[in-house]
Model the fold of this input.
Amino acid sequence: MLLLTAWAVLWFVVVAPSGGFSWHYLRTGGELIYDGSSAGGGLNLYAHHPELQMGPVSFLVAGLFNPFPAEVGQVLAEALMSLLGLVVLVLAGRSAARHFLGTGTNHQRLRQRVLVAGLAFTPMWIEVSVRFAHLDDVLALFFTALAVYYLTRCNAAATGICMAMALNSKPTALAFLPLLLALPKERWLRAGLWCVGLVAVAWLPFFVVAPDSFAAAKFTIPNNPASALRWLGANDPQTPDWARPAQAALGLALGTVAVWRGRWAAVVLLGADARIVLDPSVYTYYTASVLLGTLLWDVCGQRRLVPWWSWIALLVLYGGVFLVPDESARGLIRLGFVVVSAVYVLFAPVRDRRERGRHKPPARVEEEPVEGPWGPMWDPGRTRPWEARRPVGGG
Done:
């Protein structure tokens, strides 16, 4: 964590002078949502400002920075969002520790996986939290990571609450909902009720008080020439009518298939894939959701020491922006990444997490979890004191 913290601080210092590209949207929404006296504020927010595509929780949090001068509030918000990126890495590591509990996974190797994946994850997190200052994406991804943490502990209520908070921060988190299906079946109802209930509490007041709030769902943006949509035949100058519903449906479908195949750790990556392949825009901060998906897959979905997918995503999706000048070619690269990564996490052979490591000595492993840096772990390197003093097989 010291290394990853230093890495994050370095990126923060480099990016902060040119950061805050979209913070004015959050600041405006944060001011309006607390201003019930204004015709365009309070519960009339979305009816009068359909361009504010963030969830109400994001505006409520953004409003906490209103008392500060604009520049100070922006820097404080960027610092908080950057800190949440480090928390996400801790949550991912602890989720993996719990998921692999009792499988002979060495916590030192797991720490190395989180470190190497975190080195790829951090630049993209700084991209969304500092360069663009998209508090809505940051909160949605943070709450999704927190939901995964509680999922690995089979806490249905907390998982449902966290997924609701993700949706209340950014509607695109809808694609991550299949995570709830990874819970035991008898806990689906509890998780679902908590999730649906809190989403209703957050969103319904806006639509009841101001029915024109539905206009926010029809807001369109230009269809970028570098979008993968162009390769799918969508050459409309603006967002096609079917793009947003198809994006949500594809993410939900792929995530459900992943859970059905026992690969819940791929849900976030597949949901992010659905977003970048069917979104008309190509902002680099979109890649942060992909990097959270690859982080979870690399540390929870497979047991290789080197987290290849985190670095592949960083180099292909982020590096391609700078290395490939042709916009159409960049769209093809995005489409190719989505297809290859989705096929891989859904169908590539993955060793079952219950298998014991080949290096595990059957008679020398302590059969109690130990407290590792990422939480309780099974450490194949620990032996019982009385076994360590005699040779294996000795009388």
Summary: The longest helix spans residues 70-99.
